[in-house]
Structure formats: C-alpha cells, structure tokens
Amino acid sequence: MTAVACAIWPAAGVAQQTKVVSVCEVMANPETYGNSVVAVVGRLDATGIVWDRRSFVSQDQCEKAVVTNGYSWPSKILIWTQREKGLPDAPSERPQLDRHALADKIASMSKSTDLGTRREFQMDKQGDLKDTVVKNQWVVAYGHTFYSPNLTNTGACKGFGCDGFNGNAPIVIVVDPKNVHALNEDGSFTQDTGK
User: Fold this and answer.
1) Burial class (CB within 10 angstroms; exposed 0-12, middle 13-18, buried 19+) of 170
2) Exposure string (b/e) for 71-92, b if CB count within 10 Å is 16 or more?
3) For a designed S-S bond to 52, which of 34, 48, 100, 111 qualifies (C-beta 3.0 to 4.6 A apart)?
4) 180 by DSSP, 3-state: which?
C-alpha cells in the first residue's frame, strides 16, 4: 500500500494529496510515476566534484527494475534543479509532507538499502579540494518526474532522455531546490538540509 501525505497548496487554499513513493515503486511503475508530480524517498547519492556534482535518489535491491533490451537500469533517479528544454517544469509550491508517511517509507527501505558512505571532493576554506568520506542520508525530493517512452541502451537513441540521464539514471525528477530535504529516520527534516 502506498503512503499518502497531505500537502497544502497556499495559493489555492485547497488541501491536495501528494503521493509519497519509494525509488523502487517508481522503477516498478515507470509508466505511472515516470511523468507525474510525486515526493520520492530514498538514499541520497552524489557523484562528481564541486563544479560537476550530480545528485540521485536511489534504493538497493528493487524487486522490479526498469529493463530495456535485456539491460537492467540502476535503481536511481537523477535530481535536476535547472529548467531544460524537453523536461517538465518543477512544481514551485512547498508541500507539507506527513512525517509519519516519510518514516514508514524509510523503515521499509532500510531493510534492504544500506546508507553507507561515499567519497566526495569538497572545497576547504582555502579553496583546495579535499577527498572526504561522507555519510549518506535519506532524502525526499518533491518534483515532476520524466521517463522517456523511448528509453534504450542500444545506442539507437531517438528522443530526449532515451539514453537515460547523467550517471545512467533511467528517470529524472525536476525539482525546486527548496523541495529536496535530507531526512532523519523518524521522517523529520535534518538540520543540515541544503548543505
């Protein structure tokens, strides 16, 4: 059963429902969740260095992966914060997400997904790059997902996003940066959100 959180849309003054889903739920249903406004919960993964950093929402051991031509795509979704032709616009509203729904997703995912650590280059106060070990975090990204119906790994790409997105992600979520939050296990936002 999918958890649903309540979001308040201040401009309209009408309560709406924001679907809270895990990365595995999106991977198992790309036609349903691959072009919709949702809040995706998973592990925050990052690659690259300071000026070429890419962030992903990921999850381990998904029962059903996105598969094209026998190739199983990684269970990760690229977090994209810029407007780009071919991608939907990010929702600008800031939903009030139900902390208990977020905690339920984290509790379920933590059975098969290890947060672990990653190596990351960060600039120190002198402007020098330092190789640092960073603890991964749970994250929720609220935005508009995009999945190409022409996704392929064969090199015969015809259309935007058909060869995946940076770092081999089959799906992208377009977000306003204010709608990406690191999470504690109880579903509350961490104090260092946005760092």
Assistant:
1) buried
2) eebbbbbbbbbeeeeebbebbe
3) 48
4) strand
Pairing of strands 137-146, 67-68: unpaired
**For the chain, how far is it from start to end, CA to CA, in angstroms?**
33
Question: Token pair of 195, please?
Answer: 């760092």
Neighbours of 51 (CB within 10 A): 7
- Given a contact cutoff of 8 angstroms between Cβ atoms, the answer to whether 20 and 98 are in contact is yes
Give the span between the Cα atoms of 26 and 175, in whole angstroms. Answer: 16
Q: What is the mean pLDDT of each run of 10 residues along the chain (195 residues)?
A: 34 61 94 92 82 85 88 91 89 89 95 89 85 91 90 71 75 94 93 48
Residues 6+ apart with CB under 8 A from 195: none
The amino acid at residue 149 is P
C-alpha distances out from residue 15 to 38, 87, 98, 142, Å: 15, 27, 13, 16
Strand positions, DSSP E, the chain: 4-9, 14-22, 37-47, 54-58, 67-68, 71-72, 76-80, 117-123, 129-135, 137-146, 171-183
What span, in angstroms and rounded, lies between the C-alpha atoms of 87 and 148?
10
Q: What is the reported pTM?
A: 0.82
